[in-house]
Specification:
Blueprint lengths: L9 H26 L4 H28 L7 H27 L7 H22 L6 H32 L3 H35 L1
Helix pairs in contact: 1-2, 1-3, 1-4, 2-3, 3-6, 4-5, 4-6, 5-6
Length: 207
């Protein structure tokens, strides 16, 4: 109740929404990297740029947090959400970085599935963050639930990927490389679910 009497600094929400928008671009670029190997180098370079842009937004948000006496929502929630959004984009960039490092030029159906799920999660995250200032539970929570549902799909896709990997290859190095990539792809989906949990907690606390 007291928070509703405090003037709202919309800059916090603007920066969080900007971070979520960069995450959407990151998900779209990951799909491009996976679906179009001929564009892999350009897509990877775009992701590096997006990751740097995300870091800059997160830095600006933390600076604003340090300078602000009053915040629209709890300081620790702002910090945790900003960091989780940044972590998602970092992990997406790490996927392409590892595939290039390991010289994995082929694509699998499982990488396509996981990349598509990550892009869908990013879109849901952005939709939730964009309307978060209203603290409307009935409007925000469906996005959070969908992010969680997509994470479950990513878990299944990851398990299926590992089964296929172990069946198809007897080369330990090949298995190690692809397992690392799949782990990072699943890690993005897991972190997106963490973002949804943070948003849900904020809405329940301030709604």
């Amino acid at each position: 109740m007291f928070n509703k009497l405090i003037p709202t600094n919309t800059k916090f929400y603007e920066l969080l929404e900007r971070s979520a928008a960069l995450l959407v671009k990151g998900g779209e670029t990951l799909v491009d990297f996976i679906d179009h190997p001929e564009n892999a180098a350009a897509a990877a370079a775009r992701l590096v740029k997006l990751e740097h842009d995300g870091d800059a937004v997160t830095h600006d948000l933390f600076v604003l947090l340090d300078k602000s006496f009053i915040t629209p929502i709890d300081r620790e929630d702002i910090h945790e959400l900003a960091q989780a959004l940044d972590d998602c984009l970092d992990r997406i960039e790490s996927v392409t970085e590892r595939m290039q490092l390991y010289s994995l030029t082929t694509r699998t159906e499982h990488t396509r599935q996981l990349a598509s799920i990550i892009r869908q999660q990013a879109m849901q995250v952005h939709a939730a963050v964009a309307i978060m200032p209203g603290f409307k539970y009935d409007k925000i929570i469906p996005h959070c639930k969908e992010i969680s549902n997509l994470e479950s799909q990513a878990d299944k896709a990851g398990r299926d990927a590992l089964v296929s990997l172990f069946v198809a290859s007897q080369d330990p190095l090949h298995v190690i490389k692809w397992k690392d990539v799949y782990d990072y792809l699943e890690g993005v989906a897991d972190k997106s679910k963490d973002v949804a949990g943070i948003i849900e907690r904020i809405v329940l606390k301030h709604g």
